[in-house]
Write a structure and sequence with these properties.
About 30% of the residues lie in helices and about 20% in strands. It is α+β, with helices and mostly antiparallel strands. The longest helix is centred in the C-terminal third of the chain and has 18 residues.
């Protein structure tokens, strides 16, 4: 007869939290922790007030798990502690279509921030961390590395920040300008801003090594301001009036609009905006941050979908590993398709290769079109990835075994509930 194990996992949610599992194969407990940025705290407080006011928590879940939260005969909420922001889940053995479930219960505990979450994980309060596409910040990793029973869950991370050119308006419609600016960006500083010491400058093909079909023959992005200046001069972007800023080839003034993607957490995006502007100004290209766009999500989305930008800074989550960042670089979707698209490159090859890749019937077709996209990005430079990242989804190894650290995802994945057992 199997021993039952209780697992506690950590995960990052909208209100920051910890996930606990119960029932691997002993009487131990495991938990998963979660956190969000401080900017989400106000929203979390409002949600907490709503829950307290309503006296109930509504959870939508299907499959092999169900919430252990319900109202008893006296209409008392059971299975969720509002004050401690802890919720509980139980396995549903009759729904174990993928095999025997080895985890009986899951407890989710939320935290205010990632630092608090990591302290809980280090103390053994929880057993693993999960937050979809948001790894632990690199700045926290060194403080916890080397602790007994704690694995940092390190792997190449497919999430990435992109810079898109406004290809449908001057000067972004000039490939010579785009290629010159590609040499002007301070990639080492951008990589550090994104992923600390673990951030590495990317190549010119947008995709990183964690993507299927990654082409390592494509040259790396190079930060060389002198090369950028020479290329701008050759393309006719010179300071004709001596005011310190380059003009367009026809003599018109340039003042590029830089739009970091709107988000509740703007720290990295804003820092990248500053790096881009400083890099452009360093080669004589006048520019500014579009303050209106970053103050409101609706304004930002309206501007990028209407292609009203010269440079746009965006983020693609690791959940787009199959579709790749090229999905968001499309300027237009095919008939019948819907969803976000932030690009402005109307080269028909971009759309052709993208849909050929995502509808491939085998790996050979997928890889062929993935590489077509990477070479097109190198050739046309309609967008680029600032840096390749390393992701960290920490977990404890002292009580539970069977963890499988999926790249860009962590140990909380589709196999977790079927593979874990207690030591």
């Amino acid at each position: 007869m199997k021993r039952r194990t209780f697992i506690s996992l950590m995960s990052v949610m909208a209100a920051a939290g910890v996930l606990s599992l119960a029932g691997c194969s002993s009487n131990t407990s495991a938990s998963t922790a979660s956190s969000t940025a401080a900017s989400a705290s106000a929203a979390a407080a409002n949600k907490l007030e709503t829950i307290q006011s309503n006296g109930k928590l509504v959870i939508a879940l299907e499959g092999a798990w169900q919430p252990w939260s319900f109202h008893d005969a006296d209409d008392t909420l059971v299975g969720y502690d509002v004050d401690s922001q802890t919720s509980y889940y139980e396995a549903v053995p009759e729904n174990a279509f993928l095999g025997e479930i080895t985890v009986d219960k899951v407890t989710v505990q939320t935290y205010a921030d990632q630092a608090s979450l990591m302290m809980a994980l280090a103390s053994g309060e929880c057993d693993a961390y999960y937050n979809y596409a948001n790894p632990i910040e690199a700045t926290l990793i060194d403080s916890f590395t080397g602790m007994d029973g704690l694995d940092m869950g390190e792997s190449p991370f497919a999430g990435s920040y992109q810079m898109l050119f406004g290809c449908s308006r001057t000067p972004g419609d000039d490939v010579n300008f785009r290629q010159a600016i590609a040499y002007a960006i301070d990639y080492p500083t951008a990589a550090t801003a994104i992923n600390g010491e673990y951030g590495k400058p990317a190549n010119r093909g947008v995709l990183g090594p964690s993507f299927k079909g990654f082409d390592d023959s494509i040259a790396m992005l190079e930060y060389n301001a002198e090369t950028a200046k020479s290329m701008l001069d050759a393309a006719g972007y010179v300071d004709a009036d001596g005011d310190g800023w380059r003009e367009l080839p026809d003599g018109g003034k340039m003042d590029l609009s830089v739009i970091p993607q709107y988000s509740r957490s703007m720290e990295v995006r804003s820092r990248l905006g500053e790096i881009v502007c400083k890099s452009l100004q360093n080669v004589g290209v006048n520019c500014h941050i579009d303050e209106e766009a970053i103050a409101n999500s609706e304004i930002w989305e309206d501007k990028v979908t209407k292609e009203e930008y010269d440079i746009s800074i965006t983020f693609t989550t690791s959940g787009m590993l199959y579709s790749t960042p090229f999905r968001y670089m499309l300027a237009e979707l095919r008939d019948g398709d819907s969803g976000w698209h932030w690009g402005s490159c109307h080269d028909p090859r971009l759309k052709e290769y993208y849909y050929a890749m995502t509808e491939a019937i085998n790996d050979e077709q997928y890889i062929e079109n993935s590489r077509n996209l990477q070479h097109l990005a190198d050739e046309e430079m309609f967008g680029l990835t600032f840096a390749w990242q390393t992701g960290f989804f920490p977990y404890r190894t002292d009580k539970i075994e069977g963890w499988d650290n999926w790249q860009s995802w962590g140990v909380i994945n589709a196999r977790t509930w079927f593979d874990l057992t207690a030591k």
